Structure formats: C-alpha cells, structure tokens
Amino acid sequence: MRAQFVLSEIGVGLRRNLTMTFAVIVSVALSLALFGGSLLMSDQVNTMKGYWYDKVNVSVFLCNKSDAESDPNCAKGAVTEDQKKEILADLDKMTVVQKVTYESQDQAYKHYKEQFGDSPLAASLTPDQMQESYRIKLQDPEKYQVIATAFDGRDGVQSVQDQKGILDNLFGLLNGMNWAARAVMALMLVVALMLIVNTVRVSAFSRRRETGIMRLVGASGFYIQAPFIMEAAVAGLIGGTVACGFLVVARYFIIDHGLALSEKLNLINFIGWDAVLTKLPLILATSLLMPALAAFFALRKYLKV
C-alpha cells in the first residue's frame, strides 16, 4: 500500500511540473551525453596514442657532401665509414633502442620518389643529395631525448628527428577539444542540478498541505521526502537513457554507417563498441544518483512541514 502511494505521488508530481520535468530530462540528457562523449574521446586519444606511438621512429640523419657545404652541423665534412660504425655501435649498446634500420642514399631517394614523385623538386634531385640515416625503433617512444642528447651535434650527424613531435601536436588538439567538451559538460551539469532543485522546491511547495497532514499523522521525514526524491531520480533516469541513446546512435552513424569514418579514415584506429557499452551503466547510474542526491539535499532545506 505504501509503495503504491509513493508511486502514485511520483506520477502526480511529474504531471504537475511537466514543463520543468521536461527541462530536467533535456538538460540531464545533454550533460550526460557530453560526459559520455568526453570519456569516449579520452579512450579514443589513448587508443590512437598507443597505436601511433608504437609506430614512431627516431631518425638520425647523417651528413652528405652537400650538407658539408651548406649545413653548420656538417662543417667537418660528410660522414665517414668509421663514424657510421661508431654511431651504430653506440646505438646497439643503448637499452632504450629496440631496433635499428639503416637507410642508404639510394633507398632514401627511392622512398622520396615514391612519396613526392609529382613535385617539381623531385626531378632535380639525385641520390647523392639524399641523406643516409638510421631509423631507430624505441622501447618507449617517450625516451626520444635520450637519443637526441647522445647524437645531436655529433661528428657526421646532420640532425636527429622524432616523429612523435608531429603526433604530439595532433594529440594536443584532440585533448584540447576534450577539455572543451568537459567544460561544457560541467556547465550543463550545473544547469541540470539547478533545474532539479527548483523542480523539487516547486513540487514541495505545491504539496505542502499534503505533506503537513502526513507529518501530523506520524509519517517519517524520509517517507514524506521519498516521492520528491524518486520524481527527480525518474526524470534523471529518463534523461540518462536518452543520453545513452545519443551515444549509441552517434557511434553507429558517425563511425560505422552514415559518415562511415571507419572506412574513410583508415589511418585512425577507432574505439570499438565495447568501449561505448562499458560507459552506458556509468551514465545510467549517474543519471539516477545525481538527481536523487540533489533532491535530497534540496528537501532538507526547503521542505518545511
């Protein structure tokens, strides 16, 4: 009987404040959709980092005859065979190095022609103008500075380049977008909490006579507050369900179908459905607990019977 009464009071409360209830649902849905989206963005960035950093190489470019005439780093002339052997031996001794691959001038010229064969500059280049290099695969891509410190400025070395620097700019942009989404999410959560508190206050005020009678007949404080708390929880849960729907639909149409980014952007290792599905219970739990707690604390202050 008591459960039936509480449920009937929830229905009455939601219908009485239909406009504000709808506003709560929409604000909760948007804020939690952004919350889930920011979590998925973090997963995506981490996945891309793991995928691309694993392919990062550090390149030690060696001086050639042309560099000896124009580059201050090669003022002592082109690299010699002894210098190349010393560099290779030192690389082999370093614990941070996983693999070293030598690229000759002919190989460098061939790769350049494959990638930039249509450029006007490619027609004027010859193999002897290309640089020999050591392509170094690191155990940990974060240890680039170890290689740079050891070989930058060394005789026969023109420069040390790390591909990770290029990727860091991309990941910095993605992280910036993620933090912007979190800022908007935080703003939307504040708006949602304010709407929940105001909705509970209006509902409590409109039913102050009923709650007063319940107090007079000996009803406990929690029993009086329960319908208001559950109203907020139900509205939040509806909003959380809508947010979960947003994420599922977005993943389906943006990644798999519709825009089909997974087919158009083959270089990006997109997160799978498992990452999306594991976030949905967290969103639903947040949508249920956040409004309930907000209503509980609002009632402690505003429910006067």
Describe this structure in words.
By secondary structure, the chain is an alpha+beta fold. The chain folds into two domains: 185 residues, no CATH class; 84 residues, Alpha-Beta Plaits. It is 70% helix and 8% strand. The chain has a four-stranded antiparallel β-sheet. Helix 1 crosses helix 9, helix 7 runs antiparallel to helix 9 and helix 9 packs antiparallel against helix 11. The relative contact order is 0.17.
List keywords for this structure.
305 residues, 2 domains, four-stranded antiparallel sheet, alpha+beta, Alpha-Beta Plaits
SSE diagram, text form:
Layout: H1 2-16, H2 18-53, E1 57-62, H3 65-70, H4 81-93, E2 97-103, H5 105-116, E3 133-138, H6 144-151, E4 157-162, H7 164-206, H8 208-216, H9 221-256, H10 261-264, H11 273-302
Antiparallel strand pairs: 1-3, 1-4, 2-3
Helix pairs in contact: 1-9, 2-7, 2-9, 2-11, 7-9, 7-11, 9-11
Family: Belongs to the ABC-4 integral membrane protein family. FtsX subfamily.
Subcellular location: Cell membrane
Domain FtsX extracellular: 56-160
Tally of separate domains = 2
The structure class reads alpha+beta
Secondary structure tally, helices = 11
Strand content: 5-15%
Membrane topology: Multi-pass membrane protein
Family: Belongs to the ABC-4 integral membrane protein family. FtsX subfamily.
Transmembrane segments: 21-41, 179-200, 221-254, 280-299
Domain FtsX extracellular: 56-160
